[in-house]
Amino acid sequence: MAEPVSIAVTGAAGQIGYALLFRIASGAMLGPDQPVELKLLEIPPAMDALQGVVMELDDCAFPLLVNAVATDQPEVAFEGVDLAMLVGSMPRGPGMERNDLLEANGKIFTVQGKALNDHASRQVKTLVVGNPANTNCLIAQNNAPDLDPNNFTAMTKLDHNRATAQLALKVACAVDDIQGLSIWGNHSSTMFPDLLNASVSGTPAMQAVDQAWYENEFIPAIQQRGAAIIAARGLSSAASAANAAVEHMREWVTGTSSVTSMGIYSSGAYGISEGLIFSYPVTTKDGAHTIVEGLTIDDFAHAKIKATEQELMDERDAVAHLL
Ligand code: NAD
Ligand code: LMR
Question: In this model, does residue 211 exceed pLDDT 90?
Answer without folding.
Answer: yes
